[in-house]
Amino acid sequence: MSDPPDGRGSYRPPVPGRVNLRTGADGSQFPPLPPPDAPERRIWHTPLIIGVLADTHMPGRARDLPPPVVATLREVDLILHAGDINTLDAMERIRRIGPPVLAVRGNVDVPELWQTLPVQRVVTIGKKTAENQEQQTWRIGITHGNGGGSAPEAARRSFSEVDCVIFGHNHTPMNEVVDGVLMFNPGSPTDRRREPFFSYGLLRVTETGITGEILRFQKG
Questions:
Q1: In whole angstroms, how large is the CA radius of gyration of the chain?
Q2: Residues 181-198: pLDDT tens digits?
Q3: Is the CB of residue 106 less than 8 Å from the CB of residue 169?
Q4: 39: pLDDT strictly greater than 90
Q5: Are 203 and 212 in contact (CB under 8 A)?
Q6: 29: β partners
Q7: CB-based burial of residue 171 (10 Å sphere; 0-12 exposed, 13-18 middle, 19+ buried)?
Q8: What per-residue confidence (pLDDT) applies to 88?
């Protein structure tokens, strides 16, 4: 199922033995939590251009995204991030690019992001059709890709009945249809590891389906 809207004004009493969401295990205070992602409440329709990020690791690997990445992402309709953002400040810097951002948490993200971001989510994109006709939809699953086995295997196990799975974790770009599902890893724009290039991705969702593109670059 797609992500439900985040509840507002709700309160859950403390549970003995569970870390309070507003404090760490040692009782220290976390910064105020950011508001829930507004894109959760939006209905997406084709045609749609989606910018895809993963493993930005900011500020550990870079304070900001490289300028070419920012310039491209300013022109997309939606940004999806597959985790290892790293900090709340990094998340805010990505949001300030302009388009709405939906993200999942990665294994090295800070506790504040673990409290506000899910392990996985599904974005549903519909095709506008004439009145009284059944609406065709495409479903994109997003997860980080850790959790045992290779990153593609772990990511694929997380979803059923999706048309595309976005993941990261291994910093290795992938744009391949496997058993009818587009497996898409944008690589990393800040930490290429053993890859010859830094990279990020674009997805184009049209009336006929979803196609992916890996954008590779060298830092100047």
A1: 18
A2: 999 999 999 999 999 999
A3: yes
A4: no
A5: yes
A6: 23
A7: buried
A8: 94
> In the numeric block, which tokens belong to residue 193?
């590891």
| pLDDT 10s digits, 87-137 | 999 999 999 999 999 999 999 999 999 999 999 999 999 876 666 565 789
Contact 169, 158 (CB under 8 A): no
- Is the peptide bond preceding residue 59 cis, with omega within 30 degrees of 0? yes
**Phi, psi (5° rounding) for residue 202?**
-130, 140
Write phi, then psi, for 78 (nearest 5 degrees). Answer: -155, 145
CA–CA gap between residue 138 and residue 136 (Å, rounded): 7
| Residue 17 pLDDT exceeds 50 | no
- Rounded Cα distance between 202 and 204, Å, is 7
d(CA 39, CA 204): 18
pLDDT tens by residue, 142-159: 999 998 889 999 999 999
Strand 181-185 to 198-206 pairing: unpaired
